[in-house]
């Protein structure tokens, strides 16, 4: 009998995990771990009725996954607690140290169609998703808050490259020298593709400001018909405070050998907008604003930082 990802993590919780360096795969910096499955990921066969959830890391992916799972299960809270989020919605390209199953291993065991998570930029997402006209939902977060959240994540995740100091990380983020590459290229690539494919593009800041309105967008995109009571239940159970207490959504049951929660929590803060102000120096903010102005000059994509 195949083990779930959670069962495998628990069984191998004493495994020594090291920080893997970055390697370039088709020009994208990714963890050396992902190299083993890379060609197979590119050949992944999507089904027309699959659903892809995409984002740059730490942009609200888990939040969106929980919202989608609640919608697809008609707001049934118990159904959405059937397993941890990473077993309910596999992470396409991820590879953990063997013998932990990869995202492809998980997907091979699942009934299709299913919901799939990725952090791949649009141009490296398996072509079969677009050949099959599969729906995708992308969530984007302003670069300043995204940088701060990713910094803490890289500190706690024992297999990610060493983030170094905040100053070093700031420079890595601007240059795109992080796992899954440039934030700029990522958010712009999916933005440019949204009108050519069945892609719903959401903003973290909008979901935070008016979750009910944004969840209704997802409901319509998934062609579901949910009553007001069900919608309110989904809004409540996908709020930060409720998800932070939900072990099926908050990654708290992952062994510390994989996620060192003594360093940081996976759900670190109340998802506030503007937490970057507690980390950016005046000089860093000026450097970011100029970098943003130059790299976003040719796009209609706009972000709110407050």
TrEMBL record:
Keywords: Transferase. Gene3D superfamilies: P-loop containing nucleotide triphosphate hydrolases (3.40.50.300). InterPro entries: P-loop_NTPase, Sulfotransferase_dom. One of its GO terms (molecular function) is sulfotransferase activity. Coiled coil: none annotated. GO terms for cellular component: cytoplasm. Pfam families: Sulfotransfer_1 (PF00685). Its EC number is 2.8.2.-. Residues 48-299 form the Sulfotransferase domain. It is an enzyme of class 2 (transferase). Belongs to the sulfotransferase 1 family. This is Sulfotransferase.
């Amino acid at each position: 009998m195949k083990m779930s990802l959670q069962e495998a993590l628990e069984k191998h919780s004493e495994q020594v995990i090291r920080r893997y360096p970055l390697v370039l795969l088709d020009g994208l910096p990714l963890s050396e771990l992902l190299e083993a499955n890379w060609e197979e990921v590119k050949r992944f066969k999507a089904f027309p009725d699959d659903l892809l959830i995409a984002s740059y890391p730490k942009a609200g992916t888990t939040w969106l996954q929980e919202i989608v799972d609640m919608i697809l299960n008609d707001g049934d809270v118990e159904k959405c607690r059937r397993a941890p989020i990473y077993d309910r919605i596999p992470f396409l390209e991820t590879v953990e140290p063997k013998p932990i199953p990869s995202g492809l291993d998980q997907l091979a065991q699942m009934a299709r169609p299913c919901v799939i998570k990725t952090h791949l930029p649009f141009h490296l997402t398996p072509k079969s998703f677009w050949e099959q006209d599969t729906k995708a939902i992308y969530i984007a977060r302003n670069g300043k808050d995204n940088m701060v959240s990713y910094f803490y994540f890289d500190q706690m995740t024992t297999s990610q490259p060493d983030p170094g100091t905040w100053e070093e990380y700031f420079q890595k983020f601007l240059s795109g020298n992080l796992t899954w590459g440039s934030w700029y290229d990522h958010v712009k690539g999916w933005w440019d593709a949204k009108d050519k494919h069945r892609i719903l593009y959401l903003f973290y800041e909008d979901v935070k400001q008016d979750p009910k309105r944004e969840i209704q967008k997802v409901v319509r995109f998934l062609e579901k018909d949910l009553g007001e009571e069900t919608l309110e239940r989904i809004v409540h159970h996908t709020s930060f405070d409720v998800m932070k207490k939900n072990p099926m959504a908050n990654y708290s049951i992952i062994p510390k050998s994989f996620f060192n929660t003594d360093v940081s929590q996976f759900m670190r803060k109340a998802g506030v907008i503007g937490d970057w102000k507690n980390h950016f120096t005046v000089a860093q903010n000026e450097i970011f604003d100029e970098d943003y102005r130059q790299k976003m000059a040719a796009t209609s994509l706009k972000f709110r930082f407050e």
